[in-house]
């Protein structure tokens, strides 16, 4: 019973982060399942089955708060479903030990770009509103879906920074669209796992616990992302991407850093991240103070003697 309560709390926390930052539900939940003894395929299957419900609730909440671009959902979601089904079907025979550090290096570069862009310059507005093309979103969705199924998470960490870096969609709509399209990915991945594994190794009580926690958090996260300033949100997302993928790289066979070295690097990253978020908050307040106050129509008429 204590394990189920813990899983529900993890599901709540993971969905709160995922729904407000566009990533981390799968990574967080899968990590815990592996830590308590689930095999990789069963852990990923368990998380994706829970995500069918959490992503549906999250998508509905983001839609209610106006955080969804349906064109982006369609262009990235259906290719993502194809990639997720393929990744789930062949997970047991795939060796991702080489692919993981390569992916982390790419994501680290994107994370540094997003963190620097939003901290120093805020939201790029010269491209804001320009359409995101299918030739960009379709391959991105295919790759992100494949990574998500084979790694137990990755749809958000791959899709969110790539779209944020384009500067064509404001952060809350990037996150809302990624979370909404993840429903298609979760359904496809779950079907792939059930076809390949059946129900072997899947604990449906664990699925239920993760689902309950995620359902509670979904509307809270959708409200939260609407009220966080884009500049601050971009800095927060960039920092999460950097710290997550730095951790993967430092533990990989490529680097194999000692525990002491890793903690020094983590301390530096956390310090830079905290400073970046603090700077973004101050910059946002300064920009808000400089913005002209909207004129109320009634006041304008009252001030006009004619």
UniProtKB/TrEMBL annotation:
Keywords for the protein's UniProt record, in alphabetical order: Cell membrane, Membrane, Transmembrane, Transmembrane helix
GO cellular component: a single term: plasma membrane
Transmembrane residue ranges: 98-116, 136-155, 175-197, 204-225, 263-281
Topology in the lipid bilayer: Multi-pass membrane protein
InterPro entries cross-referenced by the UniProt entry: TM_pro_TauE-like (IPR002781), TSUP/Inactive_protease-like (IPR051598)
Keyword Membrane found: yes
Pfam families: TauE (PF01925)
Keyword Repressor: no
Subcellular location: Cell membrane; Membrane
Family affiliation: Belongs to the 4-toluene sulfonate uptake permease (TSUP) (TC 2.A.102) family.
Protein name stated in the entry: Probable membrane transporter protein
């Amino acid at each position: 019973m204590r394990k189920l309560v813990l899983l529900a709390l993890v599901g709540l926390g993971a969905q709160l982060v995922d729904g407000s930052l566009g990533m981390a539900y799968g990574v967080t939940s899968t990590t815990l399942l592996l830590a308590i003894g689930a095999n990789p395929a069963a852990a990923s299957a368990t998380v994706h089955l829970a995500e069918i419900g959490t992503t549906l609730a999250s998508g509905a909440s983001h839609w209610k708060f106006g955080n969804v671009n349906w064109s982006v959902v369609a262009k990235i979601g259906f290719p993502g479903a194809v990639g997720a089904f393929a990744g789930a079907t062949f997970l047991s025979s795939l060796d991702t030990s080489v692919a993981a550090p390569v992916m982390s290096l790419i994501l680290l570069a994107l994370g540094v770009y997003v963190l620097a862009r939003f901290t120093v310059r805020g939201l790029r507005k010269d491209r804001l509103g320009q359409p995101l093309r299918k030739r960009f979103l379709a391959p991105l969705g295919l790759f992100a879906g494949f990574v998500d199924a084979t790694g137990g998470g990755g749809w958000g960490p791959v899709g969110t920074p790539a779209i944020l870096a384009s500067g064509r969609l404001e952060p809350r709509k990037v996150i809302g669209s990624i979370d909404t399209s993840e429903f298609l990915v979760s359904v496809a991945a779950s079907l792939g796992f059930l076809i390949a594994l059946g129900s072997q190794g899947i604990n449906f009580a664990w699925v239920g616990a993760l689902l309950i926690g995620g359902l509670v958090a979904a509307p809270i996260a959708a409200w939260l992302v609407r009220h966080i300033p884009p500049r601050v949100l971009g800095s927060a997302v960039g920092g999460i991407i950097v710290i997550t993928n730095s951790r993967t790289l430092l533990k990989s066979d490529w680097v194999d850093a000692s525990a002491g070295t890793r903690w020094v690097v983590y301390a530096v990253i956390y310090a830079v991240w905290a400073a970046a978020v603090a700077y973004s908050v101050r910059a946002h307040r300064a920009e808000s103070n400089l913005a002209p106050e909207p004129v109320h129509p009634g006041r304008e008429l009252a001030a006009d003697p004619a």
